[in-house]
Amino acid sequence: EFQHLTYPYLIAHLMRSFRDKYCDPHLALSIFNYAQHLSIPSYVFGCTTPAYNELIETRWSCFHDLRGVHDALEEMRFNGVEPDGRTKKLAEKLRRKVGARTIWEEESVFGSGEVVGMLSKIEQLTIKEPRRKQEKRPGKKLPALDAWKDDALKEDVEDRYEFGQ
């Protein structure tokens, strides 16, 4: 059975409630993890942009997990989940906070420039990927999807087959 239409909004609301109202970000992350691993339909229909936004918000506001935010955005891109305006706002808020700080754990572990590289990748991941269109070349026709039918329906005079024989 497919999930109910309110399922992705319910996941996002539960994550936000557990994070903000009950001050339990670990439970908010476990809600997303549970929906992600419950079943394929649960992951596809439940882990949509609002749920990913709550995941990003939780990882950043509660844990300052820059790598976790980066991984969530990469996962969104890989799974075809489109970022929205809130995703862009979260990335902008994150960029401002990171710019204000001087020492980061990632800098000392991975070397100079890692945080800056992650920030630029995060900004790239929040941009909607344009839909790919087939290129139209002047003077050259692209084959139609039913082109094979034309070849099969052409009458071949040399085969000498006739209907009923």
From TrEMBL:
Residues 3-124 form the Mtf2-like C-terminal domain. One of its GO terms (cellular component) is mitochondrion. It comes from the Eukaryota. It holds the Pfam family Mtf2. This is Mtf2-like C-terminal domain-containing protein. It comes from Suillus plorans.
